[in-house]
């Protein structure tokens, strides 16, 4: 069933598990993620990032993801990830996303607050939830020129209070698009942040988080854990193997089958690492 972030994350910040938000790029990985969630009887978040939006019109993505969510046996949030402009957010809300992220992490503090507030005003009027970012989670590729900055606990508190966001992304040592699990989590910083705010926390760049740290962060006020690269690697690498092993196969529906199964397994593994057990 279709749900917004508040429904999916209800009680999660205070629990010892966290809900993953997975970047998906179409029907195949969306269905695989929802199958994994149904196996564990857990809510899940399907996220659309900028790359997906540049490939497919947002209203078409919304239709695909909403329909996958509506037919799911568990609550599924359809979330727009890392939008940096109001126009894309308005389009996503109109198209039917139940949740949006406004990423003002590259803006000066006051401007980030101001723009996030505008998004919250629009989104909440439409029963759409809002995630925003304070501090800035960087990228493993320096050529992308993103300024990374750890979250200061005091500014997280002020930001959460002034914006009224439903979930708050914080920078505590992860980087986006790491292909190995090498992130060093700053637990002191996470601890200080959660002492100052009640807003559910979100961790980005979580492909780079070690298995033992995924288990550990879920016990903090972390409610949402964003994972993208891990599933993309599984889908792409399995697809390559399939093409190599079946050089005469040209039907992509056949080639998609194994990658879908492997994505489902990987999604389930991450859910279990985040403390989700079958209810
Ligand atoms: O917003 C999306 C995530 O932060 C994904 O990061 O691709 O490094 O797992 P990742
Ligand atoms: Zn992210």
Write a structural description:
This protein is an alpha/beta fold and 279 residues long. The strands form two sheets. Strands 2-3-4-5-6-8-10-11 form an eight-stranded parallel beta barrel, surrounded by seven helices. 47% of the residues lie in helices and 17% in strands. It is globular and about 60 Å long. The chain has a single domain (2-273), classed as TIM Barrel (Alpha-Beta Barrel), CATH 3.20.20.70. The structure holds glyceraldehyde-3-phosphate and zinc ion. Residues 82, 176, 204-205, 226 line the site of zinc ion (ZN). Glyceraldehyde-3-phosphate is lined by residues 23, 81-82, 176-178, 204-208, 226-230.
Q: DSSP strand (E) fraction? A: 15-25%
The CATH topology name reads TIM Barrel
CATH architecture: Alpha-Beta Barrel
Low-pLDDT residue spans: none
Q: What general outline do the C-alpha atoms trace?
A: globular
């Amino acid at each position: 069933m279709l749900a917004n972030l508040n429904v999916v994350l209800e009680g999660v910040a205070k629990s010892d598990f966290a809900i993953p938000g997975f970047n998906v790029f179409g029907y195949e990985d969306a269905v695989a993620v929802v199958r994994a969630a149904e196996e564990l009887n857990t809510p899940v978040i399907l996220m659309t990032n900028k790359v997906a939006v540049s490939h497919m019109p947002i209203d078409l993505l919304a239709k695909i993801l909403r329909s996958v969510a509506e037919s799911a046996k568990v609550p599924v949030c359809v979330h727009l990830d890392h939008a940096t402009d109001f126009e894309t957010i308005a389009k996503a809300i109109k198209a039917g996303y139940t949740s949006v992220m406004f990423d003002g992490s590259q803006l000066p503090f006051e401007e980030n607050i101001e723009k996030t507030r505008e998004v919250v005003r629009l989104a909440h009027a439409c029963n759409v939830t809002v995630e925003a970012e304070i501090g800035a989670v960087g990228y493993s590729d320096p050529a992308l020129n993103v300024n990374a900055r750890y979250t200061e606990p005091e500014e997280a508190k002020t930001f959460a209070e002034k914006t009224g966001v439903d979930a708050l992304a914080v920078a505590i040592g992860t980087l986006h698009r790491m292909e190995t699990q090498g992130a060093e989590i700053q637990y002191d910083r996470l601890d200080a942040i959660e002492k100052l705010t009640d807003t559910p926390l979100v961790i980005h760049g979580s492909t780079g988080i070690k298995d033992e740290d995924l288990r550990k962060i879920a016990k903090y006020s972390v409610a949402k854990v964003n994972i993208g690269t891990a599933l993309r690697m599984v889908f792409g690498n399995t697809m390559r193997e399939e093409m190599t092993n079946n050089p005469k196969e040209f039907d992509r529906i056949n080639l998609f089958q194994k990658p879908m199964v492997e994505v489902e397994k990987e999604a389930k593994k991450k859910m279990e690492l985040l403390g989700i057990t079958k209810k």
